[in-house]
Amino acid sequence: MKRKKRGIGFKLILLSLLFIPVMQVLFIIGCNSNYLIKKPFFVLICIINVILFICLICGLKLYFEYKNASNRRLKKSVKKFLTVFMIIYVFGCVFFTLLLYGPSDKFKNWLVTTAMQTMNHQYYCKWFYSDKQIEEVLNNNYVEESGESTDTSLIHQEDEEDKEITYENEYEEAVLKREKGAKYKIIELNVNGCKGYLAVIYDPSKVRLAVTKNLGYSGQLVTKMAEDHNAILAINGGGFYDPGNNSAGGTPNGYTISYGKVVTNGEYGVNTQAGGLIGFTEDNVLVLLKNKTAKEAQAEGIRDAVTWGPFLIVNGKPSFIKGNGGWGYAARSAIGQRADGIVLLLAINSNSTRTKGADMVDLTEIMQNYGAINAANLDGGTSTVMVLPKAQAQQYRPDCADNYCYINDPIDGDLLHRTRAIADAWIVEE
Fold this sequence. Notes:
Helix content is 33%, strand content 22%. It is α+β, with helices and mostly antiparallel strands. It folds into 2 domains: 2-103; 145-428, no CATH class.
């Protein structure tokens, strides 16, 4: 009978220790957010928590109440295990609680701003914080654009390949120093421990916008769009209509112009982010336009454009960024242009768990360092890719076996190393 009771007690202890941490996390979530608080099973979680603690107490009592029980060595081992487990458990709960609700807002800012910029992972922060808390974080992390219109007279395109150049700093040297006849170069970066690639395009007339062939139905991989246009380099473009993060990527956001033709006139959704039209004029100047329709932009000589944002730099003036800008940290893409006409295309990886990457501050600083006077954020996350033809891509990815490969490391929401089909891409023509 004693052995049977001791066995029952041991099972109660294991059952309790297995489920108590899970229930405690759910309890914390329910108390600090309005994601579960109004749900019927929240009450059930509270009841289960009470039952589990009762089971733990009863199990310990049954197991240890018999002083002369057999197998003292096993009992001593179990007692030691339980002591260590409870110490780790208590410290784990304290650490977890302090991380979420402690005096430092660093983790809260990262979690809220990163999660709220996604379509299907907002629950990561809504589990732990109320709508009011989330709003407070977003109000302390935002991008305030200057509102200025792009001054195209600030761009003076010159071929400086054969000129003798005195470099002002290491960034100028990195951009302007090139092999004779090179149409572009790629500068490798390290951003918050993540790999980044800055493509320097010397002839802005070669930068065009490719659009999926299945417009309105499904997107294409950037590798395919690059191959279809015989591009020497490509990067993802603007955002696309993606409710629930389940679309096929075939519907560009807002207004789109490709090779002088209006491809979408806002019928595929509107741009809800900061920013506006990001495009090139017939004079090969990157312009950032607000409150313009595609037809109006076309009338002003825009040959290629996407709708996205936020704008990072306009006429040499960076946007005011409070906190991390409200976009959190993720894989990022950006486009910019220097005063000498050189175009900068930027792609930055995230890490394997999608918890690192770049924020708007990082993008702005990189673009400023390398001389951009106009720059804007492009679509990011899983969409972020930089693509090269096979021979060139193998310098960065020796395993490239297709005609075109991405040289960065895109990671999707399932933490798989892959990208997705999207609506448009900036390509560099031969």
